[in-house]
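[job 4471] stage=fold_predict status=RUNNING
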Amino acid sequence: MLSKEELNTDTIPVIKEQVVIDKRSADTAKVRIAKSVNERNVQLDITEEQDTVMVERVPVGRMVEIEPTARHEGDTLTIPVLREEVVIEKKIILVEEIRVTKKKGETTRKVDVTLKEEDIDITRESLDYTNVGENKLT
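[job 4471] inference complete, writing structure tokens
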């Protein structure tokens, strides 16, 4: 139970305010991106390589003891052509050699090529927010 002194006392309430801060996103502008593809024809010089083979038949007409094999002399491949002749004894006669020479050459020609190039257009559009900030906390 409360005493008389306690019943006659006045009570003063103590109030404490708190602030609540919140944020929200708002659109302020739009960004529009447009892409276009442009084509243009260009003429390019290209280099092409080609191999040319020359075949030369060289008569030899001599007897050989051992069958010769194909051999390389630089860029030339020499291939022996043999024939057997029946005499009292069989001998191998080198009739001819075939020489195959490989030569490299270059030619330049013009070719048409289509190249593509992309352009980007960016447009920023402002949005009208005249009432932003009028929502007050009560």
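[job 4471] summary: The chain has a mean pLDDT of 84.
[job 4471] exit 0
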